[in-house]
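Provenance and format

Records in this collection were gathered into a single text stream. Each protein contributes a sequence line and a token line. The two records reproduced below are adjacent in the stream.
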Amino acid sequence: MKKPEPLNEGDQIPDFSTTDEQGAEVSASGLRGNSFLLYFYPRDNTPGCTAEACGFRDLWSEFKGKKTKVFGVSGDSIKSHLKFREKFALPFPLLMDEDHSLAKSFGVWGLKKFMGREFEGIHRMSFLVDESGKILKAYHKVKAKDHPAEVLADL
């Protein structure tokens, strides 16, 4: 097991294709021409992940005003994503990454330590991407509750 090696500012995002919790395809090529945020989070319905998601929800109109799409990404199932999105009225899609390929391609999958255990998982990190697919801002150290306002301030 190794520590994650996340992408950095100035890097081009990897080519990817996945679906959201509704089954709609989302791909790097399909997002060209749009500014967007990919925020990776460990798990649906956990305290930190819920605070972060609800923060983006609460600032949603401001993100829309800045013409920036928001996508949450975790390794949870479609069923879990659907329940999470519905329970908290999240206005943005949650992307599927059950095989962790998206997390690995962005370098956010790796060794974690929690309550004396070591295991592999998704690290809470985000990437603000421009219309050409270049990373404008890489957030490697994220405080779940404060992160949505931090991203908005950078737009």
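Adjacent record:
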Amino acid sequence: MYSEKHDMFRIPGSGGHLIGSWDLHKHSKSPKLQRVFFLSFPELSKAKRDLLDSCYTSEYLVESKATGETFLIKRYRKMARVINGIPKMKTEILVVFIVPDDGFAFFTSDIEDDCVFLSKSEPFCVNASSFPGLLASCVQVFDVDESAYACMKRVTICHSRVFRDGFKAPFYIPPQIKKN
């Protein structure tokens, strides 16, 4: 993702324990690396923790334009079914962490007025109050096989649907700001 706050491109490493940053204004052969330490995690039952241990995990970085906070979102997916020999994945849970500049990330179930969009394009965040019909503190997912919606205050997937034929263009397009 491109961070306006840091004026550079940032990408999470596998597991979310590192964030690589590239400053396009300075010539460098290697990225700046930031270690991420997870200070808290949501309280989950043993059955839910065991489920998460068996899931495929993806990490996403998103920056809130309203608050300037950086969110690291961990998406846990499991195979829902096989259709015509192709496994279809379903999101089980989304966990949101706030990552301050010091790297000490902490779990949050409240991303305030923000609504996060995850798809095959760059993740982005908008103020829900600026768009009628959007709910605050939620994450929406649009993937090749799935459309899902999660309410962060409940730390659960409110709605998830796996599609048989999938989507040819699973992209959320961020709102464009008109510059004068």
